Automatic annotation (TrEMBL):
This is Uncharacterized protein. Gene3D superfamilies: NAD(P)-binding Rossmann-like Domain. It comes from the Eukaryota. InterPro entries: Fungal_SecMetab_SDRs, NAD(P)-bd_dom_sf, SDR_fam. GO terms for cellular component: cytoplasm. Signal peptide: none annotated. It holds the Pfam family adh_short. It comes from Owenia fusiformis. One of its GO terms (molecular function) is oxidoreductase activity. Belongs to the short-chain dehydrogenases/reductases (SDR) family. CDD domains: carb_red_sniffer_like_SDR_c (cd05325).
Length: 259
């Protein structure tokens, strides 16, 4: 039985990751976490179609106590995990990226970091013991270099220092660059022992979700992915991951992005 936890699953990519796994793996156990389970209408609807396979838990990723409680609950319930997807993210608390330095505020930087960077780190801290006990149900099992679990951090291409030609979006860019460093650091620590966890960052493409909605008009024709299309591509990549990919920053087409 494949066991996955998707964090930030109330809507957008996170919700679609849950749907994708449940539709394709009838025996999978999926834990979907979100900050307001009562208000997560679409997630509750999905639960009604998969009452035995989908479990909803509360995690506001800025709350370490939520993460700790949820990890204890998943440990009691499932004992291990094969896949953790950290999907929750914000562009900025104002929903608009900064266009110049005058827009930058300590509050904006802090709030964006707390969700986009600190959240996935704290998730890794509490859920890595369960991933180290996984069965390698996702990714390509390699007899010589087996892995137990996978951590996927949903990052963004704008977090690439090398690729940054436009500037702006200070809070979001910085938070995703730092998230990529977290991925790299995690890949080293969780790749050392006998049991290993693959850790990667993925850019999902520019996706038709609430996060990017204010900027859709500027996206060239055919370049705006539906959440279904993006998740199809990402899950295909996740199912092909090997230990040698650990620490990489990957694009939706599986190619490596520069840090
Ligand atoms: N859309 C794009 O074009 C694009 C491009 C590159 C990267 N990404 C990345 O893809 C990921 C998913 O974004 P999306 O496009 O699916 O955005 P979205 O539709 O706006 O969804 C964002 C999700 O994050 C959750 N969230 C925000 N703050 C949270 C917190 N403190 N605790 C728990 N959950 C929280 C939201 O929950 P609530 O419902 O409770 O608000 C929602 O489920 C993000 O990491 C984003 O940076 C997106």
């Amino acid at each position: 039985m494949a066991k996955a936890l998707v964090q930030g699953a109330s809507r957008g990519l996170g919700l679609q990751f849950c749907r994708h796994i449940l539709e394709r793996s009838p025996s999978a156990a999926v834990v979907a976490t979100c900050r307001n389970p009562e208000e997560a209408t679409q997630l509750k609807l999905l639960k009604s179609s998969y009452p035995n396979n989908l479990r909803i838990l509360q995690i506001d990723v800025t709350r370490e106590d939520h993460v700790q409680l949820a990890a204890a609950s998943v440990k009691d319930d499932l004992g291990s995990l094969d896949l953790l997807i950290n999907s929750a993210g914000i562009l900025h608390p104002s929903k608009r990226g900064e266009t110049s330095l005058k827009d930058v505020t300590a509050h904006g930087l802090e709030a964006t970091f707390r969700t986009n960077t600190l959240g996935p780190m704290i998730m890794a801290k509490y859920f890595s013991p369960l991933l180290l006990k996984g069965q390698g149900a996702f990714g390509l099992t390699d007899r010589d270099k087996p892995h137990k679990g996978i951590i996927v951090n949903i990052s963004a291409k704008v977090g690439s220092i090398t690729d940054n030609g436009l500037g702006g979006w200070y809070s979001y860019r910085l938070s995703k660059t730092a998230l990529n460093m977290a991925t790299k650091n995690l890949s080293i620590e969780l790749g050392r022992g006998k049991n290993k966890v693959i850790c990667v960052s993925f850019h999902p493409g520019t996706v038709d979700s609430d996060l990017s909605r204010p900027y859709h008009k500027g996206v060239p024709e055919g370049k705006l992915f539906s959440v279904e299309h993006s998740v199809n591509l990402l899950m295909n990549n996740i199912n092909n991951l090997k230990l040698e990919n650990s620490g990489q920053f990957l694009n939706w087409d599986g190619t490596q992005l520069p840090y």
